[in-house]
Every structure is written in structure tokens, then in C-alpha cells.
């Protein structure tokens, strides 16, 4: 998609997919159902990428985003949404292993110098993504994508997008590198280093870890990218205020599931915890639960409030599965 279409009068459709490791199977299942309904309306060749101007994803959500938007030799998505579930069932035990007691305890030991390196070497993920995506780059996606990661050297978020890649070759990273970078969960996978180059021989280096550090729920980040695009495309005499343009957005935000921790923790118990207890307590991971849920829920709170304030709350739908 060469033109973004983020101009006055146009409705902008956006899909956002949270991070969550193996739980990427949840949005994959939802998207498979949605795509089947779209195919019932428009024929068997319809794909998710045909209906969204922007697809954003963090970590495992970034992998799903790429699968939905990377082109095959026929310039159609490499994966139909219905195939994502089988992809996770086949590969997730090697790519996104669940946080077992053994693996998490080993991660704690690593932090205290009792063991070295991440739990997994990441070779399976590297091999899989390189084999699937080859040398495809961000600017080749079939619709606009937004995939966050975090540069551990610069200590700042890095937002990969199709729009930026088309404007600057140094931001036109290989999709395989973007997927590996946004999925490089600390203690479980190694940080990912790569470089980009432009026609003049300039280079840019990236030292990336999991995008969930910056935005586990990338919805607000994607909206901000759309606002930036609006400001860039419109002249001073014909510029729409970004907030007003939000009335012309249709946003579908998919979570990857979250356990409902009602009464699971208490101030009485937490007041006695040290570092190790916050990291691992009787099979639970309090610190990860707090940071992960808080990050995603705060984004949902802000986006929901934004659309309600603009009197267009029906333009935003958040789907999050919560289990007891």
C-alpha cells in the first residue's frame, strides 16, 4: 500500500495486537474468525490486510502483524488468518515457552550471577523468521504496520513502521530482524543486534529487546503514528487537528489474555517480600503480573477515554480474555 490514506474525510481502520508470548494464539483465533466472516461477504481471497489501514503489534503481536502483512510471490499475505493458530500450535513450544517454575528460577539465578545467559538461545526463532521472511523489508508490507521494540543501548523505544521505512532507508529494516527484535524477551531470549544501510553508505545500528518494555499494548503508539502522518501530509492551511481526526478512526484492539488476579496478592503479604519474592512467589510472578497488566490496561483506559471524550466510543473495541 503506497498511500496511507490518512487524509481529511477518510476513515482510518486500525488493528492492534498485544504482546503475550504463546498466548498469541488468542488473537490468532479471533482474527481467523473475523477473516472468515469477511470472506463470506467478499469472497475466499479476502484477507485481514485488505481491511485495515494500519496493523500494530508488539512481541508476539508483531509476529502476527508480519504474518498478516508480509507479501508472498503473488503479492498476497504469506499467511491467512486461519493458519495462525496452527502456526502457534506447531512452533510456540520452541519460540515462546511458558514460564515454568524451572525456567523462571533459572532466570532469577542468572540475575544473581549463579548462571549466565538467557534461558533460550533464540536460534529457532531466528531460523524460522529468516526462512519465512527472507529479505523482505518494512516498506514492502501489504498495509501499514507499526511494531515497537526497545533499544537497550540508547535506552529508548524504537518504533518500526511502513511509513517511516518508505521515507528513510535507514528505518527500512528487514521484517525478520524486526520480529526477532520485538520478541527478544529479557532473560528468555538474547537481545538482537543488526544494522541498516542506505544508498549513500550510511548505516544505523539497533540493539533491541522485547517491545513489551515500551508498549505491550501498542494501540496508543499506533494512534500517535497516525496523528504524525496526518500532520506530515496536510499543509498548514488544510490541517486537521489530530484529536478531531480520531473521530474518523475505527480501532480494534486485541489482547492476548490475562489472568484475573482478584485477591491473589495483598499488601500484608507484599510488605514482607524482597526482590526474589516479587519475581517469584509460590508459582506466581507478581512483578511481571503488575507491570504487564498495568501497561496494557492503562493504554486501554487512555484510548477508551479519548474516544468517549470525542463522543465516538463505538469507534473503539477492545477484546481481552480474562481467566480466573
Automatic annotation (TrEMBL):
GO terms for biological process: defense response; lipid catabolic process. PROSITE patterns: PNPLA. A motif (GXGXXG) lies at residues 19-24. GO terms for molecular function: monoacylglycerol lipase activity; phospholipase activity. Belongs to the patatin family. Keywords: Hydrolase, Lipid degradation, Lipid metabolism, Plant defense. This is PNPLA domain-containing protein. It comes from the Eukaryota. A motif (DGA/G) lies at residues 210-212. A motif (GXSXG) lies at residues 57-61. The active site is at 59 (nucleophile), 210 (proton acceptor). InterPro entries: PNPLA_dom. Pfam families: Patatin. PANTHER family: PATATIN, XYLOSE ISOMERASE.
Amino acid at each position: 500500500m503506497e498511500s496511507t490514506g490518512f487524509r481529511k474525510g477518510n476513515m482510518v481502520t486500525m488493528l492492534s495486537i498485544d504482546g503475550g508470548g504463546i498466548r498469541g494464539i488468542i488473537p490468532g483465533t479471533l482474527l481467523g474468525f473475523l477473516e472468515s466472516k469477511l470472506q463470506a461477504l467478499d469472497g475466499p481471497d479476502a484477507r485481514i490486510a485488505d481491511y485495515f489501514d494500519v496493523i500494530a503489534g508488539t512481541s508476539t503481536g508483531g509476529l502476527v502483524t508480519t504474518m498478516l502483512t508480509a507479501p508472498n510471490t503473488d503479492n498476497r499475505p504469506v499467511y491467512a488468518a486461519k493458519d495462525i493458530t496452527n502456526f502457534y500450535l506447531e512452533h510456540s513450544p520452541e519460540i515462546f515457552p511458558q514460564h515454568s517454575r524451572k525456567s523462571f528460577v533459572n532466570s532469577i539465578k542468572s540475575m544473581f550471577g549463579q548462571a549466565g545467559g538467557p534461558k533460550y538461545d533464540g536460534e529457532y526463532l531466528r531460523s524460522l523468521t529468516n526462512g519465512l521472511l527472507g529479505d523482505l523489508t518494512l516498506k514492502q508490507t501489504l498495509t501499514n504496520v507499526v511494531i515497537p521494540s526497545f533499544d537497550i543501548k540508547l535506552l529508548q523505544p524504537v518504533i518500526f513502521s511502513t511509513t517511516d521505512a518508505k521515507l528513510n532507508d535507514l528505518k527500512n529494516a528487514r521484517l525478520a530482524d524486526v520480529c526477532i527484535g520485538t520478541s527478544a524477551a529479557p532473560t528468555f531470549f538474547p537481545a538482537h543486534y543488526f544494522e541498516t544501510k542506505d544508498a549513500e553508505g550510511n548505516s544505523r545500528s539497533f540493539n533491541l529487546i522485547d517491545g513489551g518494555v515500551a508498549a505491550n499494548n501498542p494501540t496508543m503508539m499506533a494512534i500517535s503514528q497516525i496523528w504524525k502522518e496526518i500532520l506530515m501530509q496536510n499543509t498548514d492551511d488544510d490541517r486537521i487537528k489530530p484529536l478531531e481526526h480520531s473521530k474518523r478512526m475505527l480501532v480494534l484492539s486485541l489482547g492476548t489474555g490475562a489472568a484475573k488476579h482478584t485477591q491473589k496478592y495483598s499488601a500484608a503479604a507484599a510488605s514482607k517480600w524482597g526482590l526474589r519474592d516479587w519475581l517469584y512467589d509460590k508459582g506466581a510472578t507478581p512483578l511481571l503480573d503488575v507491570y504487564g497488566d498495568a501497561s496494557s490496561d492503562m493504554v486501554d483506559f487512555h484510548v477508551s477515554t479519548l474516544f468517549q471524550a470525542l463522543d465516538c466510543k463505538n469507534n473503539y473495541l477492545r477484546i481481552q480474555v480474562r481467566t480466573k
